[in-house]
Amino acid sequence: MKRQRAFVDSVARLADPLCTAEGMELVHVEYQREPGGLTLRLYLDKPGGVTLDDCVDISRQLEDILDVHTQDAPPYRLEVSSPGLDRPVGKLNDFMRFMGHRAKIRLATAVQGRQNFTGVLAGVIEEMVQLQVDDETVSLNFKDISRARLINYNGER
Q1: Which H or E run contains 90?
Q2: How far apart are the C-alpha atoms of 100 and 119, rounded to whole Å?
Q3: Whose C-alpha in 33, 50, 51, 82 is 20 to 30 A from the C-alpha of 112?
Q4: CA gap 74, 92 in Å, rounded
């Protein structure tokens, strides 16, 4: 798990300047085993939305960069796409940016006997993500979040 996290962090460090140079935001990086094998998936966004041509352009450039800098990684399939309706939330400041939006959050370690939470993002206090679940606010440690996605995000900020 730590090696996988280190690989994702390395890919994000390599991809972020490329995306910024192309006028896009690197939203999230995933690396996981799927039925077809290992998949490295990057989600991009930009004002007005990401086009197929944007994804192809970043994918081609990134393949070359990753070939040079991640030679010891096992074979994987690279996918580049827009975030879509269930936009991933992976950066601490995104939990503030999308305050008021509904989200699903999965934790690596259980809190209150649960690992899965659905509610409205209510901010961040000292790296603790605040999630309004029904009539209570639950504090979730950012470092324990293994996956977070907005629910039916319509693209408004």
Answers
A1: none
A2: 9
A3: 33
A4: 29
CB 103 within 8 Å of CB 122: no
Question: Residue 126 corresponds to which tokens in the numbers above?
Answer: 């000292």
Are the beta carbons of 77 and 36 closer than 8 angstroms?
yes
CATH, domain 2-81, list 3.30.300.70, 1.10.10.60, 3.30.300.20, 3.30.450.40: 3.30.300.70
Q: How far apart are CA 137 and CA 13, in angstroms?
A: 33
Query: Which of the listed CATH numbers 2.40.10.120, 3.40.50.1360, 3.40.190.10, 2.30.30.100 matches domain 92-150?
Result: 2.30.30.100
Domain residue spans in the chain? 2-81, 92-150
Give the tens place of pLDDT for each residue, 63-76. 999 988 887 778 89
Cα separation, 95 vs 122, in Å, equals 8
Place 149 in a pLDDT band, splitting at 50, 70 and 90. very high
Q: Do residues 134 and 114 make contact, with C-beta atoms less than 8 angstroms apart?
A: no
- pTM across the whole model: 0.79
